[in-house]
């Protein structure tokens, strides 16, 4: 796995590189600004990029803009975006163009090495990883017109784990239920959220992303 890291904090950037190399992963380049990141993508054509949301010069959304541009230049590039705190609008901007090979994680997750590495590999392998905290904030909202309120507590648990990118077997193990029970809950979730019943990855992620987008529009 060839990795490019874009992070303006030198200590975090070098710490990430050290961590990943210690795991036997190939960090081919690091950058401290969007321009350097895009040059590294062009030069090294990595499998995955780890990108900070807030980068110079304004420290607003430069990382998201650079990540979208990197995927335009290198179709199929996997991107794992890191943020210091939950920024749902930025997550939606990135994921609006498709959810495959994309992740959005809080920086604090890096300290939980196994979780971070699992998310990194899941995204590199073509999946999606949305930080559990983002999902938790979404599911904690209470609006009378929110279709999420149609879901039972167990279905909400399943949806949260789907958003993290877990498959049926992993969800079953986490919730101590059978694979068949998980499949039944997923069918019910799709029906209640007005999504065609299927176990396809994009449809699973759409069940959460649809409501990230709805939440952003309602809070605008």
From TrEMBL:
<keyword id="KW-0238">DNA-binding</keyword>
<keyword id="KW-0804">Transcription</keyword>
<dbReference type="InterPro" id="IPR016032">
    <property type="entry name" value="Sig_transdc_resp-reg_C-effctor"/>
</dbReference>
<dbReference type="InterPro" id="IPR000792">
    <property type="entry name" value="Tscrpt_reg_LuxR_C"/>
</dbReference>
<dbReference type="InterPro" id="IPR039420">
    <property type="entry name" value="WalR-like"/>
</dbReference>
<dbReference type="InterPro" id="IPR036388">
    <property type="entry name" value="WH-like_DNA-bd_sf"/>
</dbReference>
<dbReference type="Pfam" id="PF00196">
    <property type="entry name" value="GerE"/>
</dbReference>
<dbReference type="Pfam" id="PF00072">
    <property type="entry name" value="Response_reg"/>
</dbReference>
<feature type="domain" description="HTH luxR-type">
    <location>
        <begin position="144"/>
        <end position="215"/>
    </location>
</feature>
<dbReference type="GO" id="GO:0000160">
    <property type="term" value="P:phosphorelay signal transduction system"/>
</dbReference>
<feature type="modified residue" description="4-aspartylphosphate">
    <location>
        <position position="52"/>
    </location>
</feature>
<keyword id="KW-0597">Phosphoprotein</keyword>
<protein>
    <submittedName>
        <fullName>DNA-binding response regulator, NarL/FixJ family, contains REC and HTH domains</fullName>
    </submittedName>
</protein>
<dbReference type="InterPro" id="IPR011006">
    <property type="entry name" value="CheY-like_superfamily"/>
</dbReference>
<dbReference type="GO" id="GO:0003677">
    <property type="term" value="F:DNA binding"/>
</dbReference>
<dbReference type="InterPro" id="IPR058245">
    <property type="entry name" value="NreC/VraR/RcsB-like_REC"/>
</dbReference>
<dbReference type="GO" id="GO:0006355">
    <property type="term" value="P:regulation of DNA-templated transcription"/>
</dbReference>
<dbReference type="InterPro" id="IPR001789">
    <property type="entry name" value="Sig_transdc_resp-reg_receiver"/>
</dbReference>
<feature type="domain" description="Response regulatory">
    <location>
        <begin position="2"/>
        <end position="122"/>
    </location>
</feature>
<keyword id="KW-0805">Transcription regulation</keyword>
